[in-house]
Task: structure prediction
Amino acid sequence: MVLGSCTSLQVGAAFAAQLFPRVGPAGASLLRLGLAALVLLALARPRLGSWTRRQWTAVLAFGGSLVGMNGAFYAAIDRIPLGTAVTVEFLGPLVLAAVQSRRLRDLSWVALAAAGVAVLGLTDGGAGGGLDPVGVVFALVAGVFWALYILASARVGAAVPGQGGLAVAMGVAALLLVPLGATGAAHLSAAPHLVVVAVTMAVLASVVPYSLELAALRRLPTRVFGVLLSLEPAVATLAGWLMLGQGIGPVGLVAIGLVVLASVGSTLSARPAPTARQVEPEPLPA
Result:
């Protein structure tokens, strides 16, 4: 499920990049979240009337993290290569893990990842042309919201059963993006042949990966989940090369490898989550 999520998410991002010339990054983000919300709402059919205040609070926070993460990420890949953007963005979850741990060893993994990102920024991964600093800043902002997404999704997964929380959160995120993305998204009406691309983007970049991640987190230890998720920068680089023709040199491959290595190392060295002590039931009286 996690590997399927990584692959689907980055292929969906490559489809989104094809829409940028027509609708722009904000318009693509709105189409992605709006169409995905419609699909998930039709499938999940959440019973909103029975939700508590705690559930609504968790879902609204989840929607806010989604709009920030998706909007900033699409603005980033409009300016820098897909693999580079995901590598920079990955600093968010990695720093979150280190902050939660507060151990010197975990901070060293963050330093290793930062070194890899610095190599990308200074050399453009050896691909030439230089990196747009605004694109790098957007990728860093997306990383902050990715860390918030991890926290918010865990709350929603615990508070709201099924896919209803995810569906409503995407709807909230789409509504928040309307002021920025509506004008761009409206341009799709002049290019109906791109509707298929937009729907494909929404399914591959939101419906499939987020559903798989929620399902995986209910089945896998977070330690294993984190190791598998560490492959995302490499998957993004491969998708950018195959679908968008975005080349990357050997220096860039080494830099991305440092980030992946840092994430795997941080996850493997993390303390296991404490488990509740098992209490043996008392025998029933004869």
In short: The two ends are 48 Å apart (CA to CA). Residues 2-44 form the longest helix (43 residues). The chain has eleven helices and no strands.
